[in-house]
Amino acid sequence: MGAIQTSESDTAAQGGRFSATQDARFAAEVREWLAENLNGEFRELRGLGGPGREHEAFDERLAWDRHLAAAGWTCLGWPEEYGGRDATVRQQVIFHEEYAKANAPARVSHVGEELLGPTVLAFGTQAQKDRFLPGIRTVTELWCQGYSEPGAGSDLAAITTAARLDGDEWSINGQKIWTSLAHVADWCFVIARTERGSARHKGLSYLLVPMNQPGIDVRPIIQLTGTSEFNEVFFDDARTAADLVIGEPGEGWRIAMGTLTFERGISTLGQQIRFARELADVEALARRTGAADDPLIADRIDQAWVGLRVLRAHAIRTMEGAGVDDGGQASVAKLLWANWHRGLGELAMAVLGPAGLVAEENDLNEWQRLYLFTRADTIYGGSNEVQRNIIAERVLGLPREARP
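Above: the chain's sequence. Below: its structure in token form.
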């Protein structure tokens, strides 16, 4: 087991400029910087803040993110004019993988850097780029995503949160739910219905909304793990400037789909390194407890390893088209990793056996937390059912599912 290696053939599939010497030099630079800087005040942050543990050392991880930014390690793929390194796809992959191998802490700025930033670069006005990209790159402004709603869930086209122009501002009313990190965010990108009487994909707009205002109420939602990294957010005549809409009013669906494609891009390869570490830890646990002697458990561990290779193969195959999804690749990727990770949580509990049913001193151990949190993997970011409908209807051309 262990970290998955990238071959030269993998790189060729990604397209772009390839130099083994340059890549090796870049990887060494990343590796050496992380080894040198994950020390001192940041030494204890290693491994903190993963899924279900976003509450861990938040202020310290924020300081770490800003330390990364000061050294030029945020927003690598952005053009140099916006503070990035104009890094190749291959270099971005190397960074994410080396970061994961170093067991560096989970980033607190990923929503801005990996979702909103690329969206502004692709679809935003020059004024919007000048206003928002610097704060994302330096991690001085944090973002959250206002998509899901109580009556819509993963069906983004069913949202009812409404916005109307009132002079030189949008007035926003409605509710969002499962909004990750809303309690610490400075801004939220909100999908709202801006054309009265519109339905489904029509009449939606992509608004940038400041969180620190009287018209917004953020309420934490306690999860099965006992933590509350996501929230419900109420908009009661919340305000944002009329020009803080990405694209034209009514183009919100197209922009939102672009954001989701960025969400499932290069950083998922770093995610797979973390998955590989989790699998290696589960395998080591099975050996310690003797569960590995059970042929069924051993077979499930082998299947998990194969599944992880499938995740990587799909990611590499689609990397060349990053940012453009004309074949349902993003939905396939979400189905692959979400179901794999949920299965890993189930495997961990099988390895623990009956002991996994008892909390230690009324607290969850890492395997119980993994199991409980991964129950949500197939729901958030677009549920399994929605992803399968997208593939069936938009890729395979099957009849649309009946909707009320």
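Residues 1-18 have pLDDT under 50 and may be disordered.
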